Amino acid sequence: MGYRIGIDIGSTAAKAAVMDGEGLLVHRLVIPTGYSSVDAASRLRADLEHAGFDPLDEGTRCVATGYGRVAVPFADKVVTEITCHGAGAAFLFGPDGVVVDIGGQDTKVIRLRGGKVTKFVMNDKCAAGTGRFLEVMADRLGVSQGELSQLARRGEPVKISSMCTVFAESEVIGLVGRGEPRENIAAGIIESVVSRVVSLVRQAPGSPYFLTGGLCENDYVVERLSEHLDSSVSTCSNARFAGAIGAALQ
């Protein structure tokens, strides 16, 4: 059987999704991207081969997308992130809606109609509304991202205003130095990310909302997004692989 393999090399995580001839998702995997997109692609291929899905098998097609898509030598072609994330979200949730993808280095908002991208917006590279921002802030507080969300549930958010991760980290250091409770700082960090994501969503309005990316399994982020948007935000465990699934569909 010929398989369709999608490779999504992100700034922090590299994902693969395998679909069979019937269009069913039969395998997925994720690894840290590390220092080199080329190395990440090589490790993904080794893992895929080990699972019985060699991208170079006869009849198998492979498409790459993401931050490091040009670093996948075994891909038959490369496709932009917007196209792949839109297609993957349409496959997972339906053809109409607004996709919110919170990645490691950027956040994308993609409006779908009939399974096609009708508008998209992205944040600035230095903006604080990304997964990497949460990772840096959690490290500063000495907790995991999961623990950061648990702390945030118990806190009253303090304002963190800086758009730049470096300056925002300085704000957090100052708050810690003044003895602000960690719960309040954690709540402020989550609110900072969510408010910046929502400001992007306002530029491509629509509904329903779908959350993809590395934060799709962070229940507290989903709750806060839903509260700010005054609308339910749908997600699922496969949503992290939307880009890879969309690449496989190409």
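Above is the first protein from milestone M3; the second protein from the same milestone is given next.
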Amino acid sequence: MYERRRVAVQALRDERIARAGVSVLLVRDDLVDPELPGNKWRKLKYNLVAAREQGFGTLLTFGGAYSNHLRAVAAAGRRHGFATVGVVRGEEHLPLNPSLAYAAAQGMRLTYLDRTTYRAKHTPEVSARLEREWGGCYVIPEGGSNALAVRGCAELPGEIDAAFDVICCPVGTGGTLAGLAAGLAPGQTALGFAVLKGAGFLADEVRELQRQALGAPTDNWRVDLDHHFGGYAKRTPGLDAFVADFRARHGVALDPVYTGKLLAGLFDLVERGAFGPGTRIAAVVTGTAPLDAPHGGA
């Protein structure tokens, strides 16, 4: 029912990489499923198994108005026979934007919390309020990152049919990086590019997720904090130029929220000599951009 998908790999031919003496593979996890691309499916996979085993018929989760995670949970619920509830940060605005309209079309029931209450969404008071309103639900955290998500993401390195030394991904909540690092072979390392400004806390998040999933954190990963381009969902002319140039060179449309920052940051480090000659790098294209997301703000 929750089948394993296999990931495609694409070698990048680019003189900037060649000059540095390294190689880069694009891991096209965004292509594994049109409705549940990449890390969204991997994070949900074992959560769906747990929800079924624990007897829940409804999934409840959280996200902003342009959340890809809400869309993915809605699609997964429809496909696998779960009702879904999306708790949206902020006030309701009609008509619904494309992201929320998609989730609603998949059958997700939407409810809203003001930003102050949303920040307290995991407190007993807010949890009790949601349970009174929606009944017993299997709760998936915002962004989908929990111990079961780590387990799902840990499967990706073993699906890559090419040798690599370093695997890279964008980092929003830390679940994908925690899982990738957990699935590496000895001698391999993981590098995450934070898409948030002031995201020093992410290292603690990754360590805690690994403690929950593995019993202890691994020491084979790190988080780059210098390529956020202004913060979550924010862009700069330089980032936009990189994304446009990358598409022209390689035929791959990167989203500026996550994978654009990942590749722009990676190319910057490569050109600055951060990787030794001969290093084989795998860059994970984790998904697509939020539908019709604004250029600035979270």
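Note on the second protein: Residues 294-298 have pLDDT under 50 and may be disordered.
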